[in-house]
Protein 1
Amino acid sequence: MKQNPLRRDHLDDFVKCYRPGEPRTHRSETERFRPFDYEDLMARDKVNLDITWLKDPSLEGADALLPPEVIAQEIVEDLEAALSEFAAIAEALQQARARSAES
């Protein structure tokens, strides 16, 4: 996800089709989002909800995955960044408490 982080605009097409807060009859079908009848789902082999028409070719096999050392390094970087953010929050809270104690 670091190379292509999920952003709100990635969900715009879904929200536009789903129309939260409106009746289901107002929802619109697109190439990516469409309703299925129960009978259609039950007629499928293995009766599952796999979305077979939306396969990501970059995930077709273990050869396409990043090497474990790269994945591990990205995890370390993400955790270090999170720890740094939490440390900054803790420091800001301590400073705010000190200021309010001085008042």
Protein 2
Amino acid sequence: MIDKINPPTCSIPQEPDYSGVSIFNLFPDPSPENYLQAMQLANAVAEERLGEYMLLSWYDRDRDFESPQHASECHADSAVPGYVDYGLYHGATLKVDIEEGRFVFFYLPVDM
């Protein structure tokens, strides 16, 4: 039976928690032609900022492709895409966003 005085509530979609994550927004000129060129740019930022690094997750809006593949399937009703959630919950400390979400990369530093 549903309580009409205190009906169930839906949670409000939350923005991702980027605390502890450095975010770099890039607008390269010329614009990257494809994912591989974008990844080279993002990797250069990661190497400069983190030294040795691991790419955890990424998104290519041009092809609507993400890694890990199908990560967003579990987030169909979520405000947070799967590749973002995966990166954040696997320890990412760097997000490189190229052209306002066209290409997005999450990195983790590798400790020696």
